[in-house]
Design a protein that fits this description.
By secondary structure, this protein is of the alpha+beta class. It is 39% helix and 23% strand. The protein folds into two domains: 48 residues, no CATH class; 96 residues, 2-Layer Sandwich (Alpha-Beta Plaits). It has six helices and six strands. Helix 3 runs antiparallel to helix 6.
Length: 158
């Protein structure tokens, strides 16, 4: 889907100062409404417009800053760091799945704050045992992941 269309859906749903962050699926906006109310409004608007069941994970500027700050891993040239956000207790489920999966050298997973962080060698994300687990149907509406570099780009846009 085109980010311009997603932004238009947010505007039509009454959001202000709407903009996308690259083509990441992340939309920044402002609203006076409570997050629980926004989630319902925006999921319904996106579902109707794009004809699919939308699932959103809304985060405030402070929450995005915390996600970046709580990263437990050092930045290494040969590794990606992903953060998983989602429904309550999902981080614990991800740790269980990660611990069961075969791991490559220096592949790590850890909960920090309320989120699960995953360090994986560049080029190995989709081929790793844990990466394949993430495609399970049971996780579809419970998590989303972002490369930590994307989180930092989002935070800079605030």
């Amino acid at each position: 889907m085109k980010m311009a269309e997603v932004c238009n859906v947010f505007l039509a749903a009454g959001m202000r100062e709407v903009c996308s962050v690259l083509a990441t699926g992340n939309i920044l906006f402002s609203s006076e409404k409570a997050p629980s109310e926004l989630k319902i409004i925006l999921e319904q608007a996106l579902s109707e417009y794009f004809n699919y069941e939308a699932f959103l994970f809304l985060k405030t500027e402070n929450e995005i800053a915390e996600i970046s700050k709580k990263n437990p891993f050092p930045k290494l040239d040969l590794f990606h760091i992903y953060v998983f956000v989602g429904v309550p207790e999902i981080a614990e489920n991800l740790v269980e799945e990660f611990n069961k999966a075969d791991k490559s050298a220096n592949e790590k997973g850890e909960i920090s704050g309320q989120n699960f962080y995953w360090q994986v060698a560049k080029g190995n994300t989709l081929d790793s045992a844990f990466g394949k687990i993430l495609g399970k149907k049971e996780f579809k509406n419970k998590i989303t992941s972002r490369n930590l570099n994307t989180i930092e780009k989002i935070f800079k846009k605030f």
